[in-house]
Amino acid sequence: MNGFPAFLRLAGQPVLLVGGNTETAVPKARLLLAAGADVTVIATTLAAEILDWARTGRLTVYRRRPSAGDANGRAVVIVAVPDADGVAVAVAARAALVPTNVVDRPELSNFIMPAIIDRNPVLIAVSTGGASPALARRVRSWIEAVLPTGLGRLARTLEGARQGVNDALASAPERRRFWDSVLDGPIATRILRGDNGECPQFLTQLAAQGRDLTNGVVHIVGAGPGDPDLLTLKALRLLQQADVVIHDRLVSDAVLSHARRDATRISVGKAKGADSWTQAEINALLVHRARDGQRVVRLKGGDPNLFGRVGEEVAHLRAHGIEVEVVPGITAATAAASAAGFPLSHRGLASTVTYITGHGADDSEPDVDWQAAARSHQTLAIYMGLSRLTTVAGRLTANGLAGSTPAAIVENASLPTERRFVGTVATIDRIARDNRLTGPALIIIGDVVALADAAPASRLLSVAS
Amino acid sequence: MNRAPYSPPDFQPGHVWLCGAGPGDPGLLTLHALHALQNADVVVYDALVSDGVLGLARAEATLEYAGKRGGKPSPKQADISLRLVQLARQGLRVLRLKGGDPFVFGRGGEEALSLVAAEVPFRIVPGVTAGIGGLAYAGIPVTHRDTNHAVTFITGHDATGDVAGVDWAALAKGAPVLVIYMAMKHLATIADRLIDGGKAGDTPVAIVSNAALPDQRVLETTLAKASADAEAAGMAPPCVVVVGAVARLRAGLDWLGALTEGRVLEADPLGLGRERRTG
Lengths: 465, 279
Prior knowledge:
- The complex is a heterodimer.
- Chain A is α/β, with parallel strands linked by helices.
- Chain A has helices spanning about 25-35, 50-55, 85-95, 135-145, 150-170, 170-185, 185-195, 200-210, 235-240, 255, 280-290, 310-320, 330-340, 370-375, 390-400, 430-435, 450-455, 455-465, and strands at about 15-20, 40-45, 60-65, 75-80, 100, 115-120, 120-125, 215-220, 245, 265, 295-300, 325, 350-355, 380-385, 405-410, 420-425, 440-445.
- In chain A, strand 6 and strand 7 form a beta hairpin.
- Chain B is of the alpha/beta class.
- In chain B, strands 3-2-4-1-5 form a five-stranded parallel sheet, sandwiched between helices.
- In chain B, helix 3 (about 75-90) packs across helix 4 and helix 5 (about 170-175) crosses helix 6.
- The radius of gyration of chain B is 20 Å and the shape is globular.
- Chain B starts with 15 loop residues before the first strand and ends in an 18-residue tail after the last helix.
- Chains A and B meet through helix 1, strand 6, helix 4, helix 7 and helix 9 of A and helix 1, helix 4, strand 5, strand 6 and helix 5 of B.
């Protein structure tokens, strides 16, 4: 360990900031103000933000060259601009045993500033001991990604309940079990969602009743199109906590690899095969696992709210008294459009966007008003439409859509195996057959597809890899 | 060290990332967007990006607002595009952060084309759009097997602020479910045109303001009463309006209301009077 980790309480303490520029001084001033310090800024040039803070009385500024004497009587000195004057202040400050930090000059500093994650009152600091600030930022991103965003709220709520629970539960092991069950069960989910109205009192009551709190919550989570970078922060966190992950066939291995190694994974994919699960079987499985007190994640490709049958699963779980949380994901159409480089709506080209499923109930033709779908100034995104592409294209042209309307197919959108094809409504069916498309594919029809030529994929790819 | 939870590409100086910020809950940011926030030099954001999301930007990043403020007109689209080019040419990592998804009524196409014209390298990162994922928090799936096999998205007013120049009568007939962004300004007109076009006045409507945020509000009404009810309830933008039978499903699927307020959910909100088909 090349440093002693500590948090300084600077509320009301006199702190000197040398330098007033936007790049290095403003961020330091912002952090010092957030910590409640009594900040004095000395510099010959002062950024607009610093002047604004001075005008509103949040800090004091002196527009002049700093000198060694400025270090006297400070709780902390930060030199944001290490020119000759700045270095002289730093040397004087260190001689006076004042904690001193000089930006980008660790050899002049006797403390360094970590990358931080601030979920007040939870504060996490990351340091690489000055080895690599860029790496410290990466580590911070990794930690950010797995922390719930409502962490601060959770900490404050638990703090509010602490005394009451301590009074209700005499022994330390009992208390520990209680807090673990709160954090693992639906109550923490509620607080993280933003519901903390009655919570401290409620927790105290529960502790007094000795109730089991872990029973039953299912998170129905959108896994996005496949690229794990397109998982939401919430999806990642829930996956990492889940005891059991019940997933569709379309969820990618890269996404599933974020589940805990010891979590049970059950594929309930509706592949056209002998052992596919019926919706009733899936519903029963969800209820059974939740009743066992397991943390269940029901993982669906894309966004469960669109062609995801989320309604049926929520209704079934609620009917059995099991709490449910639905976590949306990135749906395939937006992922495909981003990857292919054309928008779904665009001024002058498409004022409406219609999403259609290629499969109706019991795999029949979908119940769609094709006359409306064939109207111009519209983008159509067709999900699961590959097997019925001939029919769909035929219905559209029969209802007046020009055969020359641009059309695209994106197979395995966002995955390394992604393939994109562009043609027209008249040719897209043959393109699909000629290229033997087999993966999950999204079909997009409309004039916006032509914009992919203006923003060619090659440009995006040259940035991508 | 365990393997990193994600590994998006490096954010290179002089590049612009057009990135969706989702409907508001920072938990609905993608890992890719988080990475962008933590590596950007400057974040150019619009009005629909929540403070919780901006709070994840690295402390050193400059946050630049490019939306409506205090009744002043919003900066012109051309000005925003120009600004992105300008910042990129200074060699900065420029994150253009938009509420929802940049390519679904986010005018991301226009900004991307300006970047192409200026030969600024860019990347587009999709986000959770309020009209689909955002409605999950209101207990409204935009599709349901008993109600619709298609859903149409539209914006309630065009770039000039007028009611969007679309054929509302055709939508009234052809779209079983309509999800309307930015609908509040012209809600009365839109409802009238849909009813004139043949949509029944008692078609279920849900109006969701601040979707997926802690102060989300949902009004359940009908097409004929939507405008008056919205005014009486003081519903204020940003709102997403859902027109169609799925809006009624909320009575059975408001999982958030059940979780936080103990709402009692109906087993058969569509009144089908039968067991839900399975299989």
